[in-house]
Amino acid sequence: MTRNPAPLRTILYVDDEPDIREVVHMSLCLIEQLEVHTCDSGAHALELLPRLMPDLVLLDVMMPGMDGPTTLQRMRDDAALVRIPVVFMTAKAMPQEVERFRALGAVAVIAKPFDPMRLGQQVVQIWEAMEHG
Amino acid sequence: MDERMKLQLQQIGTRYLRRTLEELEELPPLVAELRRRSGEALAAVAPMKRIEGLAHRIYGSGAMFGFEELSARAHDLEQLAAAGKLDAQCLRQLSACADALQDAARTAGRSRGVV
Question: Which of A16, A17, A19, A30 to mutate to test the interface with B (most CBs of B within 10 A)?
């Protein structure tokens, strides 16, 4: 296991709220050379993922229809998507919930509300600290 | 952070506020429905869940646009709704929290000239 040496190149952010998607898009675009994609539902994400194959997926937890944890589960059940790391974004970030999200396979949890000025940096830190191998 | 981004955030925040103010119009009828149905635990589940969901969304987003008070009041309401208690005292508290949330939204709205 080594720390992640490759720079973060592509990311998909999934959230049903258009205003938040726009803010996250803007925040993430501050990361140099990062290609940022967004979509509005877990189902849409599952359609896009095989084509995009992003380095990282940021998933909102509470979404109508397919929520974040279900979307992650579906990714884990799909051989092509199983290795894409997922970070949850949630306004329910109490320690026991964070523990539950990690148990589901999330590499990290970002608490909402987040600071739009710091989000990009936070995501890069998570990416760089991720172990892979 | 550059000025352009600040301006953009402010614009998205204003649009967000408009939408939130509209959504919050749902709150008084939902609270009224809860009061009416406080004796029927099952029938109260749907309006309580709706209030919790609405408050949860605002808690998670308000402060992102600099509306700290809006997020804080939404958090109070979310916690009360999540507890789901239907006795008279809890419903009074919930109603007061719902009012406080709407007040916070209007105050934020006035600061952006959308109220």
Answer: A19
